[in-house]
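Hey, resending since the last one bounced:
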Amino acid sequence: MASPENPLRRIALDPSGRVLGLNLPPGSLMDQTVHGGAWHEPLLWLSDGPALPGSWSMLLPARQAGLQPVLIGPDLGIHDGSDLSPQVSSRPGDLDANAVLAGFWHSYNWQEPQADEDLSESKTGPFGPRWPGLAPPGTPASESDPEIAADQLARTLIEPGPDQLTHNGEHAHIALVPAPHSADILASIGWTGASNAQRDALHLSTVLRSWEERFGVRLVAVDGAALHLSVTAPPGTCAAAEHVAAEHLAFCPGVIADGGWWSYRQYAESLLTRTRWTFWWD
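The structure tokens again:
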């Protein structure tokens, strides 16, 4: 996926990153893939130690060099490449998000509703097997900035607390990935965390690109089977929220039923005020 001008090659020559205007902590370039060998160039730079508060904002200047910061959760197989399968055939911008989501939607295991069932109170919502199309763009919060929101979520996932991204005493690390948008990170590294649901990383990045444009989304953290996104332009009406919930359900089929939400309506209403979207796959 990475281009011949992969800026990580310059970090290989200067591990401090000063050649790119950075002051990197100790880190390593990763190139191992699930296919059992090294990719033809580095897939990402990964800090040797756990991410610290401020790590995200410190690496933001890397975007000028074509690198996107992202937190890497402790369950993602980076060192042995067990969760990475990069692609080179196309880029997220080459695909259509509506078509991708419609394909996901039509592959969903729909249950026939009962005759007296209120679909808005079900786990699958009011649309049934009919794909409703993309939701309208969200409403940006006053003085909202997607980069500030991403930094705030990164701090939440790094600092000690109930939302800290940790597992068995291991914590998240900060990484840099060659990609034009944060949404493209999944396709660039070939993330396989949703492969059990047959969700291709390129297709997932295509949807995230559309969410970046419509909802001010930024991909902040990637774990073994989970994604953490900041949001600055949530849906502005209940009807729009129901549409967004449909996109979420298509994107990640278990997001409602397995997420502790007792109905589609409850989940959709929560999207009106939530500034963080989390998705996970078995």
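The mean pLDDT is 87.

Sorry for the duplicate.
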